[in-house]
Automatic annotation (TrEMBL):
Residues 112-622 form the CBP/p300-type HAT domain. It is an enzyme of class 2 (transferase). Its EC number is 2.3.1.48. GO terms for biological process: positive regulation of transcription by RNA polymerase II. One of its GO terms (molecular function) is histone acetyltransferase activity. The keyword Transcription regulation applies. InterPro entries: CBP_P300_HAT, Histone_AcTrfase_Rtt109/CBP, Znf_FYVE_PHD, Znf_RING/FYVE/PHD. Its main location: nucleus. It is found in: Nucleus. This is histone acetyltransferase. Acetyltransferase enzyme. Acetylates histones, giving a specific tag for transcriptional activation. GO terms for cellular component: histone acetyltransferase complex; nucleus; transcription regulator complex.
């Protein structure tokens, strides 16, 4: 803890591994420890060098049963005339070198895998072909390079989908308790069943396909990671409001891609191509939260170069805006708005005025329609409650993992527990009754099944509890059992306050609108155009139209598309299979893996070494 965080700690608190710690037992230390890179000794010349500089990965040597003493440094290999680094897909056949390396692989560094050795997916092949084509066109037309030189640069770009997992986004506990309490209150007074309760069968979990895309560029014979993006696809099997929606959750890059003029082009064309891909699969909306990291923070890739600029919110919005305009020109997007205009504009934000300083009852009756008058409150009998229809507008908000809205709702409800909203005492009192004064916090345990993340995540989960760069592994639970609450309490109690369930729900939405409106430009809601009839498209080849019509006749439905020789059905089904679990399944897992193994990208030599370790992890299953 820094001095500021230490001062904010309570006298006793729950520490990193879940144990109770007394604040007075903490010791003061100076954060001046410097990580020193490990060394490796050459088995021939006996010289020492950094493992990073020598591209030495101990885990790879262990995988090949090659002892560390047999390591031969790059300089000694150069003297023998052997090409370094030897890549897994290099074609070295002359002079029997390939056979000798295979026979004596324990004496030489294990083969360095390349990004192209990672199995392709249909989507990855389509996106890779797109960025290579666009890069080649840019280099020839704009940069004026020769076709041969342009092809060499374009072919140095490799795109792979390294994670594709079936996951489930669950509603956070505070919002879940809010909705459950409101519905339990309404069903307690419903007559003849639950016919007066709206959204009674609402889902609180949203299945989706989570994907991770990496872009590499070959630099000095090594494939270096230059771009990563995390995606969430909520298909037709997902309940509303997430159905047929895509959330572009995280993206990050390091400024090593050359030439520099290709960086924006390659990154934007990756996203544009992905939008075209999901549009052809039947998705209808794409949501983006443009949230730049603070300078020095590790977002996805650990340790960026110090000279790399961190984009401001305005610059990032402009970057997305340029990309969206290209999508509109290509007919991929037909409408653009923001999340406030689409979902929250009907809820007037709560603006601080002079009325804020008045009492709760005076302000509620004079400046807001949330609270009923005293006569209306007195007539809130059981008969009136039984005919009351409750709306849950919060259930109409798309709920994505890691998005701003779920976190902001939890923050608003957490502030209710701390009695921050003193002017809304009726809400605070009601929330204390159904949630409790304090919450039960425990370390979340990851389930052990095939839909889980990697074994690394299971073993290292507790180490990430206090990681500020991502969601913690604390699991918060209410200390109140809803089944033990009598919702038939008389008027005047904390349950039957002056606010009805509809007014409480509106209060929450208006608080959320107050938070979202000032930053609404950072939230993009993009409506995708529907799948067009390929036979009517301009310039459609007869062969392409014949293939599409042939698939229609074989039961694929009326709406199918052909991208990169891949038939895509408009029911959001994915032609690519689910991939095995791994470290790229979540942003936090990838970041933790990099931090624990010091896989840094602040220097090119470290970026090469880190990329090699990641490639060996993917191809050798280390």
């Amino acid at each position: 803890w820094c001095q500021k965080c230490y001062a904010a700690l309570p006298g006793r608190f729950i520490a990193l591994l879940g144990q109770s710690v007394q604040k007075s037992s903490l010791e003061r230390h100076v954060n001046d420890q410097v990580y020193r890179e490990p060394w490796i000794q050459c088995g021939k010349c006996k010289n020492h060098m950094h493992q990073v500089c020598a591209l030495y990965n101990a885990a790879a040597y262990k995988h090949y049963d090659a002892p560390q003493e047999n390591f031969i440094c790059p300089l000694c290999l150069c003297e023998k005339g052997k090409s370094i680094p030897t890549t897994a897909d290099s074609k070295v056949e002359e002079n029997g070198i390939k056979e000798r390396i295979k026979k004596d692989d324990k004496l030489y560094p294990p083969c360095i895998p390349t990004a192209s050795s990672i199995p392709h997916t249909y989507m990855g092949e389509y996106l890779e072909d797109r960025i290579r084509t666009m890069a080649l066109q840019h280099l020839i037309k704009v940069e004026g390079v020769s076709k041969e030189e342009g092809e060499n640069v374009a072919n140095s770009l490799v795109l792979r989908v390294v994670s594709s997992r079936e996951r489930v986004t669950h509603v956070e506990p505070r919002l879940l308790r809010w909705i459950q309490a409101q519905k339990k209150f309404s069903t307690s007074f419903a007559v003849g069943g639950n016919e007066h309760v709206q959204s009674e069968n609402a889902k609180f979990s949203f299945p989706h396909r989570s994907k991770t895309i990496l872009i590499f560029q070959r630099i000095g014979g090594i494939d270096v990671v230059v771009f990563v993006v995390y995606l969430q696809e909520y298909g037709s099997n997902c309940p509303e409001p997430n159905r047929n929606k895509v959330y572009i959750s995280y993206l990050d890059s390091v400024a090593y891609l050359q030439p520099r003029s290709l960086r924006t082009l390659v990154y934007q064309q990756t996203i544009i191509g992905y939008m075209e891909w999901v549009k052809a699969r039947g998705f209808r909306y794409i949501y983006i939260w443009a949230c730049p990291p603070q300078r020095g923070d590790a977002y996805i890739i650990y340790c960026h170069p110090k000279w790399q600029r961190t984009p401001s919110a305005e610059r990032l919005r402009k970057w997305y805006g340029e990309m969206i305009e290209q999508c509109k020109a290509a007919g991929v997007i037909i409408h653009q708005t923001n999340i406030y205009e689409k979902h929250l504009s009907s809820f007037r934000p709560l603006v601080n005025t002079r009325a804020t300083h008045k009492s709760s009852s005076t302000r509620m009756s004079a400046t807001s329609s949330l609270a009923p008058t005293s006569s209306k409150f007195s007539s809130l009998t059981t008969d009136n409650k039984s005919s009351m229809k409750i709306n849950y507008p919060v259930e109409n908000l798309p709920y994505f993992y890691g998005d701003y809205i779920p976190n902001e709702i939890e923050s608003l409800l957490a502030r209710l527990s701390r009695k921050t909203f003193q002017s809304d005492r009726s809400i605070v009192s009601w929330w204390e009754t159904i949630w409790g004064v304090t919450a039960k916090a425990t370390l979340a345990t990851l389930p052990v099944n095939n839909n889980d993340t990697s074994e690394y995540m299971k073993g290292e989960a507790q180490m990430s509890v206090m990681n500020k760069t991502g969601p913690s592994f604390w699991k918060f639970e209410s200390t109140v059992d809803l089944n033990s609450i009598d919702f038939h309490d008389p008027p005047g109690s904390s349950l039957c306050t002056a606010m009805t369930p509809n007014q409480r729900n509106e209060w929450l939405m208006r608080k959320l609108a107050t938070s979202i409106k000032p930053m609404s430009e950072n939230f993009f809601v993009l409506q995708l155009s529907g799948v067009k009839n390929k036979s009517k498209e301009k310039g459609t080849k007869k062969k392409k139209r014949r293939i599409v019509n042939d698939y229609k006749n074989h039961g694929f439905g009326a709406d199918v598309s052909l991208l990169k020789n891949t038939i895509l059905k408009s029911d959001t089904s994915d032609p690519d299979p689910v991939l095995p679990p791994g470290i790229f399944d979540t942003r936090l897992a990838f970041l933790d893996y990099s931090q624990q193994r010091h896989l840094q990208f602040d220097q090119l030599r470290r970026a090469k070494y880190s990329s090699i370790v990641l490639l060996q992890h993917l191809t050798l299953d280390l």
